[in-house]
Amino acid sequence: MDPKAGKRKTRGGSALLRNPTAIARWESEDGVLITNVEDGCSVITNEPGLIVWFLCDGERTRLDVHATLAATYLMSDETVDAVDRVLERFIATGLVLQRTTPVKERPYEADAQFAPRG
Fold this sequence. Notes:
Elements: H1 3-8, E1 15-18, E2 22-27, E3 31-36, E4 42-45, H2 47-55, E5 57-61, H3 62-70, H4 77-92, E6 96-99, H5 109-112
């Protein structure tokens, strides 16, 4: 059995959400600058890194991000590891938040006003 295959089975877990206080801005030479406007923490990434960041929508887990990318791009073991490193960097800097419950499953107070009355 491939040891990496077993490792991949554990890469799901928490839903990943772009920090809502973070913005992305294209930088001509350096790539894309993603900044958390609340604390000023910034990361410079390339276009694939920006795609990974955008895929963190509060519903996708790490495995979902990999699957979405694999549907479009050829994903080698090195690419999977690179995506994991990018995600870890975004999480460590607070540009991506981890949630144990996907956004669509969390109740919102605002939704209560539209609930059917019974």
